[in-house]
């Protein structure tokens, strides 16, 4: 039986009834130790895969090549490096599938929910939000802090390879946070604090990067946490990962292919936002606009998902 966390957040509202069906696959093995161990194992397997890859590169091509490749992928400042970074998330998705099978005795496909509905919700979410971002692009490009980076032709050359990489990146993250964690916790707890807030806080914590953003690192982590809450809401309302995948895909498409942040995963962007990422006075206004755009995207997704 699900456990209520009374006094922290109210029980699951009626709008989240689809979440009960989504979490049904996880109910046979909802022990907390399994969920905690599974999360740790997913992280460990993911890190082991990345480390093994660079050890292989070092053995074959030498330490200098491995170090240069590692630095390039971390910055994502070229189309090649950013594309490789996107595909590297396949290790995370693979780890989620392995742990779900070995530790919980079920297929990783169950993390998506009903596949036909998930595909439909993905399209109904991603397409209108992408249209919104494209419509807003001229306004973004007019800002004095925004400069041209790639040409449309250069971007089109890379899109056939980079788009599948983006799907792998957002798919792997959603499988872990809104698939594995939200499904496991929702099968055991009624309260959104458990299945929405906690995974979103973990998602935000993993985006905490003081080396890149200095005093703004907490704000960036908060932005990621709020994004996770919006994605968790869409998952609970639809009972599958499709809407969260579409929301994530459209958001990252804009940040990666349309207007990127200079020096931070900007290798495939048509335009670059050039600001001092450590200066709150420069970051906060753009972060506020970005949050409002994310809020509108979430509301737009909910509108198009109404059945």
Summary, kept brief:
The protein is an all-alpha fold and 307 residues long.
Could you walk me through the main structural features you see in this protein, from its secondary elements to its overall organization?
It is globular, with a radius of gyration of 20 Å. α2 (32-61) crosses α3 (63-75). A three-stranded mixed sheet has the order 1-3-2. It contains twelve helices and three strands. The protein has one domain. With 307 residues, it is mostly helical.
List the helices and strands and how they pair.
Layout: H1 17-23, H2 32-61, H3 63-75, H4 79-88, H5 90-104, H6 115-141, E1 146-148, H7 152-188, H8 192-205, H9 210-213, H10 217-238, H11 242-258, E2 259-261, E3 271-273, H12 280-304
Parallel strand pairs: 2-3
Antiparallel strand pairs: 1-3
Helix pairs in contact: 1-7, 1-10, 2-3, 2-5, 2-7, 3-4, 4-7, 5-7, 6-11, 6-12, 7-8, 7-11, 8-10, 10-11, 10-12
Mean pLDDT level:
92
Low-confidence stretches: 1-8
Q: Provide the structure class.
A: mainly alpha
Tertiary shape:
globular
What is the radius of gyration computed over CA atoms, rounded to a whole number of angstroms? 20 Å
Can you list the strand order of the major beta sheet? 1-3-2
Number of domains: 1
Provide key terms for this protein.
single chain, 307 residues, mainly alpha, 3-stranded mixed beta sheet, 3 strands, globular, disordered N terminus
